[in-house]
Fold Beta-2-glycoprotein 1.
Amino acid sequence: MISPAFILVSSFLYHVAIAGRTCPRPETLPFATVTPLKTFYDPGEQITYFCQPGYMSRGGMRRFTCPISGIWPINTLKCIPRQCPFAGILENGAVRYTTFEYPNTISFACNTGFYLNGPSSARCTEEGKWSPDPPVCAPVTCPPPPTPTFATLSAYEPLVGNSTLHGKQAVFKCLPQYAMFGNDTATCTAHGNWTELPECREVKCPFPVRPNNGFVNYPAKEALYYKDKATYGCHDTYVLDGPEEVECNKFGNWSAEPSCKASCQISVKKATVIFEGERVKIQEKFKNGMLHGQKVSFFCKNKEKKCSYTEDAQCIDGTFEIPKCFKEHSSLAFWKTDASDVKPCEADA
Ligand SMILES: *[C@@H]1O[C@H](CO)[C@@H](O)[C@H](O)[C@H]1NC(C)=O
Ligand SMILES: *[C@@H]1O[C@H](CO)[C@@H](O)[C@H](O)[C@H]1NC(C)=O
Ligand SMILES: *[C@@H]1O[C@H](CO)[C@@H](O)[C@H](O)[C@H]1NC(C)=O
Ligand SMILES: *[C@@H]1O[C@H](CO)[C@@H](O)[C@H](O)[C@H]1NC(C)=O
């Protein structure tokens, strides 16, 4: 005989037991979703873990059934980010990255002289691919250099398709009679343009003026131009002061303007002098005069110290000044000692 009260109590207990065996909301896993997601599950109900896009399951079951005990089994599933292909090396450039996994972005830069042919950054997608595709670093090239007016390109090696690699050079020459201003060499820069090009300008020089007591020769043309030359010479006993040949320079004047300088007559009758390091008799060595620019050293006496020293004299365009300290002896005063025979004074101590 079962009392109605017992049925009531046991049905209550049964219900409590059933209620106590439901599974709770399952634990959440990083980067995973659970379906179906509920607050509790009856025993026998199934749940499935899915990794979110961009993540892969690793190391465990994905499907669980709520057991009679009401406790979900231990879940060792992990959702790990997908790996994109290694992209840490960019030839002639560099890659900035932390990892190559979803959802990271990496960025690219090229070395000087190279440019990014492609994007400057790429993202690892849910599918584990780089988007957009990583770039390459292509060498910078310059278009053919423009040729300045009145110039020609004297050296230039273009790459395929007329362009030139960064760092290569082009050398220019001016046409004859034109002078170059600036550097003859232009370089293809890392920016893909050329360094400054030279300029060629027509340069004329005036006709050279004939020097007094001399002559000048130059090409018989209606005008004289850059690099034209003129030669100078002097009449007898005159000496050219300046180079024999002069050239029309790029500033439109001559490299020099030589003139003719007169030689000197020596008024001293008798003296021993030093000429080019040697003792000579001035009256013999320079009996035909001394040429402009020539220099001798006279001997003078220091009376107190009874010694000799020298003083220079030079022929300058017909003028030769004898040093004041020099005393010429009359040829009769043969008993006097010439300064050149007196012992030299000590150099100043
Ligand atoms: C090089 O340049 C010239 C003149 O600009 C052009 O006619 C020629 O087709 C170019 N060659 C190449 C290979 O691009
Ligand atoms: C011309 O440029 C080249 C290369 O840029 C350099 O080496 C050279 O010294 C320059 N010459 C002059 C005269 O400036
Ligand atoms: C070349 O290009 C760079 C960058 O655009 C610029 O700064 C430079 O002035 C250019 N050089 C010449 C000679 O034009
Ligand atoms: C060339 O001419 C300029 C002015 O016409 C002058 O200043 C300069 O000194 C001259 N140079 C030479 C070497 O004669």
About this structure: The longest strand covers residues 307-316. The radius of gyration is 53 Å.
